[in-house]
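Following up on my earlier thread - several people asked me to post the actual chain instead of describing it. Fair enough. Here it is, all 388 residues.
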Amino acid sequence: MPVAFNEPLSFLQRLTEYMEHTALLHSAACQPRALERMQCVAAFAVSAVASQWERTGKPFNPLLGETYELVREDLGFRFISEQVSHHPPISAFYAEGLRQDFLFHGSIYPKLKFWGKSVEAEPRGTITLELLRHGEAYTWTNPTCCVHNVIIGKLWIEQYGTVEILNHRTGDKCVLHFKPRGLFGRELHRVEGHIQDKSKKKLFVIYGKWTECLWGVDPAEYEAFRRQERRGEPLRTAPSDAGSEQADGDAGDTVPEAPDAVQVIPGSKLLWRVNSRPPNSAQMYNFTSFTVTLNELQPGMEQTLAPTDCRLRPDIRSMENGDMDLASQEKERLEEKQRAARRERAKGDAEWRTRWFRQGRNPHTGAPDWLYAGGYFERDFSGCPDIY
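Reply from S.P.:
Thanks for posting it. Predicted structure:
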């Protein structure tokens, strides 16, 4: 696809945006009760997709062997990812808390479906979070993301589907329903769900919007509020950070107008609120403040990065510098170089060997997965491929 459809980031960098709200993982590790830990984990799972709101640019497809690292001592984590397969495209990632409180890892291979006027990205692959101090592991899969009006009209995004987060030690489960837009867009961006124990007893109700905030409340208070709502009594609401969109009269699907605020149930506690975006975000591909920093190449960094790191990728760098013609030429050159390398391997019956991840089985689900082999942060990059 032409680079004009892209944003100046690789999909590996887009994966790193899961870590914007790492504070929720540190908080989960400090909670003494399993219910409170699950609340933090559920908030983190929702926050991981929040940066996709209004992000209609397509990230660059990673080249086979491409990597991305991010070390944020201020946020307390380090992260490494690698493109481990080209057909199908699979991205593996691994993050660890610098306080030795969590491990976060998985492999993602979204399956794209074209529906005429929309493109649907169905998530494949398992996400795993381990809270080391508690000996707990949580697994889940992201919701489906759909971009509407890809042919004509104003682009807009929705997330929908059911996300189930399982605590493998206790058997507790959090079930989150990402609502499709519904009639007149009334359900757009909304998330509703609950936490239940292994006997399926409902322990906690969660509600909110993946673009804005997430709240939680005791099930009895939730049911009482719903009865009050049906009787038509006044309801308290929280201020919203997210403005609504108006239809612009184009020939595509009408952009639904999202409700301005989440109705806050008395007795609720705030689990998470999205970070405000910078004032010029709309001119910067709707990036968050966290995302804006992901392609930054500071002086001296080239000497410490792996030669396969996204920051060194010339087509993305050219696009960020505003040279779209050079970006297009470099993108074509890199893709042809990748094809030529694949042809050479086929001649010699050589298989591609990943550098930092290996195929295996998820230790908690038993499903096929890509597992971090270790060693990246020792910075021996002698065996890295020449992909740029």
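The two ends are 19 Å apart (CA to CA). That should answer part of your original question.
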